[in-house]
Amino acid sequence: MSIFDAGGHEQVVFCNDPESGLRAIIAIHSTALGPALGGTRFYPYASEDEALTDVLHLSEGMSYKNAIAGLDHGGGKAVIWGDPGIDKGEALLRAYGRFVEALGGRYVTACDVGTYVEDMDHVARETRHVSGRSPEAGGAGDSSILTAFGVFQAMRAAAQHRWGAVDLNGRTVGVAGLGKVGRHLLPHLIEAGADVVACDVDPAAIGWATANFPQVRLVDGADDLIAAGIHVYAPCALGGVLSERTLKALDAEIICGAANNQLAEPGVADELDRAGVLYCPDYVVNSGGVIQVADEYDGAFDFKRAERRTAGIFETTARILERAKGEGATPLAAANAMAEERMAAVGRLQRVRLFG
Ligand code: NAI
Predict the structure, then answer these.
(1) If you measure from the C-alpha of residue 183 to the centroid of ligand 1, how many angstroms do you get, rounded to a whole number?
(2) Quick one: which of 64, 169, 242, 279 is 20 to 30 A from 22 by CA?
């Protein structure tokens, strides 16, 4: 793949430090709205080409996520090519931090798959342009609390759109994945009076749910979950879970979950729409995480302020669903259009040059 074909990325940087083993690619898709913000994925890709393809897609996705979340940030992402369990270490992370610093603030990094708050603490010893640090190091820590809160807000907006009331009382919600986000989502749902069905592949997660939320009905896997008479399906594990196959078995009227890249193929959004299933775009629903990360980077982290901003996901989702209905478009198409409009309208302001 040629980076010049990749949908207009501004800058792609390959970072090589053989002594520490660092092989990283930083992709800046857009700085139209501000410094490109997006996490660092540490993953054992099969090839350099696979790593490049992933970082180009992920960074483009961050432009849309940051735009729709109302942040003053463009979209970027980084991948470190390696096995985090084997290759990760202080020297590698600090070498990576120096490459981030060398970009002078055009790219701001944070956690993603395979990287954690303590890793960002190492990165932060070499660069100011990092968020998602531990509270001990002055950061905001785990973002899954606000991500789950944002998922709940989007779900309420979808319920209002579909059923005329935000109320989830008496509705059955299926949560696939009881990891960091899924676990924080459960109490919101239960407090709202929803019946919850859940699954996870990890016996420890199942044990946690049994001990903490005995009222949650646990099923064997996502196939059972989507056919369990649920009204709302909340994918909170891996991506690619919405395919033609799942659509055939799906009971739910609303899909609203935290997982990134839920659609196995883009065409599935149209098929869901034709089937009358309200699909809330994943990057809108799960933007609570990046709202937290931006709050930490933009000033001293304030949980209440970040929570207020995350509550805005209710309004954003409601506007997207209304627009989709009005235009006869899918919610995904409506969200993409709104993100692109904001990037164009606000990005344009850079032309009003400021001096001094
Ligand atoms: P996690 O790794 O803590 O939890 C994922 C859970 O899913 C694990 O308990 C795992 O055992 C389970 N799982 C894996 N495969 C499964 C399957 N086939 N069926 C059922 N369960 C399965 O991840 P986390 O942080 O909870 O994130 C969940 C999703 O939300 C991911 O797609 C992530 O990219 C996305 N996300 C998370 C954010 C955050 O703040 N943590 C922010 C934005 C998106």
Answers:
(1) 10
(2) 64
